Amino acid sequence: MSSEPSAGGSDPRRPGARLVTAAQVLLTLAGVLYLGVVVEAAAGWPLDPARSYLSELAALDQATSPLFRSTDVAAGTLVVVGLALLGSAYRLARHEGEPAATIVQKVTFWAFVVFGLATVADALLPLDCALSVGDCAAREEAGELSLAHQAHTFSSVASGVSSFVASAGVVWLAHARRRTPLGISARLAGALGPLLGVVTGTIGLFGSPLPVGTGIVQRVQIVAFSVVLVLAVQVLTLRQPHRGAPETDVPQDRTARSPASHSEP
């Protein structure tokens, strides 16, 4: 679709530039907070990382539950607020006559929004117990656990599916700068996360205990998506080239072409 830039994020005089910068800061903080592996290491690896999901550290029977749930709420909230700012920047740019966002930008934007909301829901609907230890898995199978524990499955699925769609969108959009450091890192992280997510999700369908190494794969997946979050604003605001136009390795001004609004000014 459109290849023309809208308001640039690098020039403070252009519409929405400060909002784009603020969104970048918030999404970067979200990516750092979502990187739970660092917190897990600081806590001394309370669960076997090779056989447990990282989300088990937020279970109510774990001493790390308040910390992990707090970081998830903060990360999800920062994602939603950051994207709201990016959406406001887009609307300002549209009022100035900038072109509408592409369909891929819109879908990717809203996938990130759903991810942020689902991450908050994950924290507010924690597991009753860590499935990889004790009799928790057996109790779950017997239906003895709370509704919140059961609902956690649905919020986790929403988080996983939305992160998959967002990552796929990032890979597509970053193609416009595939020979630059931004394009290479965004496409690598964006492709790695969904691939590993499919692997761990498929294994998880067979219940606990998890095969050795599943937890490690899931943690690498989370690291990859944390990188995607950090790069999200830069990729969402990339100038998309005309079909058939030559690609340039010169970095372009970031734009406020977020897909948060309607296509018409």
UniProtKB/TrEMBL annotation:
Annotated TM spans: 21-47, 67-86, 107-125, 154-174, 186-208, 220-238
UniProt keyword annotations, A-Z: Membrane, Transmembrane, Transmembrane helix
Presence of the UniProt keyword Membrane in the record: yes
Source organism of this protein record: Oerskovia enterophila
Protein name in the entry: DUF998 domain-containing protein
Region feature (Disordered): 243-265
